[in-house]
Amino acid sequence: MTPTQTLLKREYGQAVYDLAQRLLSFDDAAERTRQAQLVVNLMVKVHPTARELPDPQPRLWHHLLMLCAGHLDVEVPYELPPVGPDDLTSLPPEKMVFRLRIPKQRHYGRNIETLVQHATRLTDPEDRIAAIVTIGRLMKAFYRTYNKDAVTDATILKHLGELSENRLNDIPLERIQQERLFDSQLVVGNGPGQPLNDATRTKFNKKGGGGGGGMGGKKRKR
After folding, report:
1. pTM for the structure as a whole
2. Which of 1, 36, 48, 174 is most buried, taking the most CB atoms under 10 A from its CB?
3. Where does the chain have alpha helices with state H?
């Protein structure tokens, strides 16, 4: 049995393969052809998805001839190419190569590592500081998502150094802690992930923290 026949046996089952081999024992050509048509009809029943193929009957007849290794002498009602060596041999499929690279810090993910790599290639000092602040805020948010414990700026800065191989050390820890650069404070209604800057915080506080139920704190006139 060839590798291709083994594949077809799985597709149509052992019973179909045995019936196909039995066809070789018929001496009468007409009876052999009639029995072959019955086997083809059975192949459709045991493999219903064959009906969804374009022009399934010629394909089924060709598979029957392949099951018999091209030795079946019958009158096929279709013009089919002869069963050749390529039909009776199959090479094993090529192995798919998956580039599985485990992140250094799994709770941050590979996207953070990609951002870190881009940040290390920045040359403008202001752009580097802005990138460090943005990445630090993302790392702190991701850390809190996957860890219930509180995280310090020192831990985030340490992890950032590990991810960047100490190439993103433009901001000292004291400044990060004093200015709370890695803290991302949100305003209700501003949308997720939008930090509250000083101008927005001042404007927000003047409005009384968004209270008043949309009346601006004014009393309703009766």
Report:
1. 0.43
2. 36
3. 3-12, 14-22, 29-46, 56-67, 85-88, 109-120, 125-146, 153-164, 173-179, 198-206
